[in-house]
Amino acid sequence: xxxxxxxxxxxxxxxxxxxxxxxxxxxxxxxxxxxxxxxxxxxxxxxxxxxxxxxxxxxxxxxxxxxxxxxxxxxxxxxxxxxxxxxxxxxxxxxxxxxxxxxxxxxxxxxxxxxxxxxxxxxxxxxxxxxxxxxxxxxxxxxxxxxxxxxxxxxxxxxxxxxxxxxxxxxxxxxxxxxxxxxxxxxxxxxxxxxxxxxxxxxx
Length: 204
Description:
Elements: E1 3-8, H1 13-28, E2 32-37, H2 40-46, H3 57-75, H4 91-102, H5 107-119, H6 128-137, H7 143-149, H8 152-168, E3 175-178, E4 181-184, H9 189-197
Parallel strand pairs: 1-2
Antiparallel strand pairs: 1-3, 3-4
């Protein structure tokens, strides 16, 4: 198969940590990264997990506190642990990525630029002006994409991405689909690489 299905939230810090590496793996193995931005507020409960706000303070502080600091140092990717723009609209930035993908723009670069703008620079990725600047930094003209980002067909595709993630049993963001195998978490990218090089044995 010629694609890697990339399920993620545009507001996911762990998608940010894995963004450049999954794009590099796709390029190295001649695969197309098929962006499937999704609504985590639907996917996480459907998988039987607690929404972020309902998790214990101990777990939140570990997973989204100290762990972020360690991953940031390990990957040499700067991160703001508690950006003020963490929460907000998902529709516009998700729709922008889907419109870019549909129109043949570099969705990989745009997606990475959006994630970086949030987690490194604490920018408001739901603001049209900010998104225009982010797209320009990736060499993309945002104007025609913004016209399509919230169009009914684009929003229907965003909903379909979420429905697909639920149907496939996606646990969270990011999850990578390679030839029928799902790999949850940017800390599983070594398994993605191995699957691309030499597929794992079929599950029994």
